[in-house]
Design brief:
about 140 residues; alpha/beta; 2 domains; four-stranded mixed sheet; three-stranded mixed sheet; about 40% strand; globular; binds copper (II) ion
Amino acid sequence: MKQRSNWSLLFIVVVLLAGTALGNSGESETPAANTVETSVAAEEAPVKKVKMYARNWKWSPDEIRVKKGTRVIIDFISEDASHGFQIKAYKIKVSLPQGKRAQIEFVADKVGTFRWRCSRPCGNGCPKLIGRLVVME
Ligand SMILES: [Cu+2]
């Protein structure tokens, strides 16, 4: 009985190896393994989703606080005028046409406090359109 189950196990192993050999055309194994690792790492990274409004010369919210390494996704809704959103230290600049939605996504990999501002001359209140990203260790 024991002998027989060993043989069936061997048979299964051989079939699996044959399947692997047939399924792989050369070097596809290594990239596939890398892909799995990457997606696991991405799943573990915390994600912060923010819905951000620009109206009455104010961002809402006007502060985002995250831990270093967080993937930040910001959905913008620019209601009263066309604006822009810029965080120089993160090389982020996006234009926000009035009434349209825009989205940015980045990894907060630099620790510190970074000011963002409106990057489009939109009127008298433009200098007031500021906020800050706080990235903590
Ligand atoms: Cu502006």
